[in-house]
Amino acid sequence: MLSVENITKSFTIHHLDQTRKAIGEINLHVNKGEFLGIVGRSGSGKSTILKSIYGTYMPEEGAIMYHSKENGPVNILEINDYELIRLRKTEIGYVSQFLKVMPRTTSLELVTESLLEMGESKEHALEKAKDALRHYDIPESLWDNYPNTFSGGEKLRLNIARATVKAPRLLLLDEPTASLDNDSKLKVREAIARLKADGTTLIGIFHDLEFMDGLCDSVFDMSDKALRYVQ
């Protein structure tokens, strides 16, 4: 499903006139329907890998080959903006610790729009969106409210609901449970397990390694850039 081939990414700090390498010579692979976990200390470049796969960052070297449903194998680093946006809408989901949305869009509208992008009918999308909000304990009283009024935990649960409800072919998870309580973490785990059972391919970063037990098929360790399969 996805191969990250020898990518390198650096950042320039202009006011210090410095260039710092974030990741170098990263190689990892994940098969369709598998869950790959990425582990490593803070600052080791885990999020940089995910953002490169999603197309937010552009590595200087290497390739990121993704087997798309519509066009077959494509290099994420070479496709145009239109093709990248289309992949994000229809095939590749991304969940971070932070919710960034258009202003004056309600929580129910956000989740519903995610499904409309997948070609769902408006009626079906609305019902699935409501089910997702209920699953992640977003109170019905907040469905017609704007997310900028939500607590941090509510924003994060909404962010997860918006991504998982689409059941994307590839889902990237960047520490999505970092600020959640245990009950909410269990709901996220339940949703991830269901997506995996239904064929979604997942790549995730979790500092809570116990959360990953029984979910991951393989683990990429940033300390030695090694990919290991879980027995």
Automatic annotation (TrEMBL):
Organism superkingdom: Bacteria
GO cellular component, one term: plasma membrane
ABC transporter domain mapped to chain residues: 2-230
Keywords attached to this entry: ATP-binding, Nucleotide-binding
Record SUPFAM superfamilies: P-loop containing nucleoside triphosphate hydrolases
Keyword flag Ribonucleoprotein: no
Keyword Nucleotide-binding: yes
MF (Gene Ontology): ATP binding; ATP hydrolysis activity; transmembrane transporter activity
Matches recorded under SMART domains: AAA (SM00382)
Entry protein name: Alpha-D-ribose 1-methylphosphonate 5-triphosphate synthase subunit PhnL
Naturally occurring in which organism (per UniProt): Salinicoccus halodurans
Native organism taxonomy: Bacteria, Bacillati, Bacillota, Bacilli, Bacillales
